[in-house]
Write a structure and sequence with these properties.
Elements (H helix, E strand, L loop, with lengths): L1 H14 L2 H23 E3 L5 E4 L2 H5 L3 H35 L4 H9 L6 H12 L4 H8 L13 H25 L3 H9 L4 H29 L3 H6 L7 H9 L5 H35 L1
Antiparallel strand pairs: 1-2
Length: 289
């Protein structure tokens, strides 16, 4: 009886998480299962299931669609790398330099997420349009004489992507650097190493887990981004999110959208595994080198 009474008490904290697992199964895994099934099921015009077919998947192995997937790879990878180059100094400042105002800076980093995403997009419209802030500033400085066409371009897409995803890179890096022992840097500099050598041989290996976490937090959602390329690119650039929305929102092309989603997801998974293994190898080489 004592064991029977004690068991529910010990398992109670774990049982409280059951609704979250049920929620994931119903609204994440089950829709993904339906998506995968609909991409290979052959349905007649009457609505009856005829059998299985891979024609819809093979359709998206055409070079045109592979080029779209490759463009999304380039956009996601470039966004992750740019965010990393900007976020590492910011995280370093928050962890080591700005300790007195650390909470304030973290608050300023997170506060944009309290507002609607569309407000961020329209704010950048006012910055990048022909008579916007950036063009007026460049003309006032005498750098340009005619306004630049910044909106509806790849430049506008990347600016908005970096702006929106930068906090996702800063937070893991900050978490990793906050636990970093600064005395290791001081010891390295005292022993005659340069800042570059200290970064390569000490800081990077010991914070590479945070780098890897932030990289994939940016890379994976950037690959399927739809709203930013659609709004900032003026529908001139085709990416994975654009193609998926085009087919999914069509009247009779939902299964094609599901098939393309499966193909793009497999490519994303394959590229993520390769990048993960590359970072793991880099981590081990830096650690033992």
């Amino acid at each position: 009886m004592k064991i029977f009474r004690r068991a529910p008490t010990s398992e109670l904290p774990f049982s409280l998480s059951a609704p979250s697992y049920i929620w994931q199964v119903l609204f994440f895994y089950f829709p993904l299962f339906i998506l995968a099934i609909s991409s290979v099921v052959d349905v007649a015009k009457s609505g009856a299931i005829v059998g299985l077919t891979f024609e819809k998947i093979s359709l998206f192995l055409h070079p045109t669609y592979l080029k779209v997937i490759f463009s999304s790879f380039v956009m996601a990878f470039a966004n992750a790398i740019i965010c990393l180059l900007i976020a590492y100094p910011i995280a370093y400042f928050l962890a080591f330099t700005g300790k007195r105002f650390k909470n304030l800076f973290l608050f300023l980093l997170i506060v944009p997420f309290w507002t609607n995403f569309l407000l961020h997009v329209y704010a950048w419209f006012f910055v990048l349009e022909k008579e916007g802030f950036l063009n007026n500033l460049l003309r006032a400085l005498g750098i340009i004489h005619e306004p630049l066409h910044l909106l509806n371009s790849l430049f506008a897409i990347m600016v908005m992507m970096v702006y929106y995803y930068l906090p996702f890179m800063v937070m893991p890096l900050y978490s990793s650097l906050e636990r970093f022992d600064f005395r290791l840097i001081e010891a390295s500099l005292d022993l005659g190493a340069s800042w570059l050598q200290t970064f390569r041989r000490i800081m990077l290996p010991l914070t590479l887990r945070g780098v890897r976490a932030g990289f994939f937090l940016v890379y994976i959602p950037s690959f399927g981004e739809f709203a930013i390329p659609e709004l900032m690119g003026g529908d001139k650039q085709m990416f994975v999110g654009s193609v998926v929305s085009l087919y999914i929102l069509g009247d009779e092309t939902g299964s094609l959208g599901a098939a393309f989603t499966v193909v793009a997801s497999v490519c994303l998974l394959f590229s993520s595994v390769l990048l993960y293994l590359f970072m793991e190898r880099l981590f081990l080489r830096r650690k033992h080198g």
